[in-house]
Amino acid sequence: MASNRAEIGIFGGSGFYRFLDRVEEVWVETPYGAPSDMVALAEVGGRRVAFLPRHGRDHRHPPHLVNYRANVWAMQALGVTRIIGPCAAGSLKADVKPGDFVVCDQLVDRTWGRPDTFFEGPVVRHVSAADPYCPEMRAVAAEQARALGIRVHERGTVVVVQGPRFSTRAESRWFASQGWEVINMTQYPEAILARELNLCYVNIALITDYDAGLEGQPEIRPVTHEEVLRVFNANNDQLRGLLHRVIEALPEERHCPCAKAAGDR
């Protein structure tokens, strides 16, 4: 059915389990097993949008057990060509504060054991990950955040850790010493899998806490899951408003290299 199609996909992260109103929910079968939940389809600003909570709407899937391949495949099966991946994230720098947004331009993978490619043979392709996020979508996200008066960092490196535990102080200090700004548990392999399917992908990280290595500084609380959800929930309306603006501002045609990142499929 034509109604079971979308052009823009959104993965909801921790604390962000619902986005659209007046939705049609569909279940998508994939060669990689079940996605995290039903996909909600609706229209936003004249654009067809698909929303899938990456952890499931009841947060049943911890970050290391999310079926990222099924989730990304499901989006492509619905016709999606662009994905927005908002997430809760920690800060590794004192000037990247809780409540700030970061439009990441780089990632560092520190996970292990996650199925992280669609190319397992007999077709094998080596996809460049030099610039893992769509430059066109990043520019739109940063511009719309500024227009809304959101405190936004227009670039940043996210280090992706295995989870579900948070970092030790030593690990956190190590990550910060590398000059990285953001820490998260879900950006890998989600962003790279989108690239393998020639999909555009942008991350919008909502900073919910300072990571453990920064705890010694004044007014910085230690990270807890409860604190993450508290800050995320306090900024949910702002995130929703930004997503609506980004969806409406994206150009109809893609003029970025993402569509050919993995060649013809």
Q: How helix-rich are the residues, as a percent range?
A: 10-25%
- The CATH architecture: 3-Layer(aba) Sandwich
Instruction: Please tally the helical runs, counting DSSP H or I stretches of 4 or more residues.
Output: 6
- Major β-sheet profile: 11 strands, mixed
What's the overall average pLDDT, rounded? 91
Please characterize this protein's 3D structure.
With 265 residues, the protein is of the alpha/beta class. Helices cover 25% and strands 22% of the residues. It contains 6 helices and 11 strands. It has helices spanning 68-77, 135-147, 169-177, 187-196, 225-234, 236-249; strands at residues 8-12, 24-26, 39-44, 47-53, 82-91, 101-102, 106-110, 152-153, 157-161, 182-184, 200-210. Strands 1, 2, 3, 4, 5, 6, 7, 8, 9, 10 and 11 form an 11-stranded mixed sheet that branches.
Short description:
Helices cover 25% and strands 22% of the residues.
Question: What descriptive keywords fit this protein?
Answer:
single chain; about 260 residues; alpha/beta; Rossmann fold; 11-stranded mixed sheet; globular
Layout of SSEs?
Layout: E1 8-12, E2 24-26, E3 39-44, E4 47-53, H1 68-77, E5 82-91, E6 101-102, E7 106-110, H2 135-147, E8 152-153, E9 157-161, H3 169-177, E10 182-184, H4 187-196, E11 200-210, H5 225-234, H6 236-249
Parallel strand pairs: 1-4, 1-5, 5-11, 6-8, 7-9, 9-10
Antiparallel strand pairs: 2-3, 3-4, 5-10, 6-11
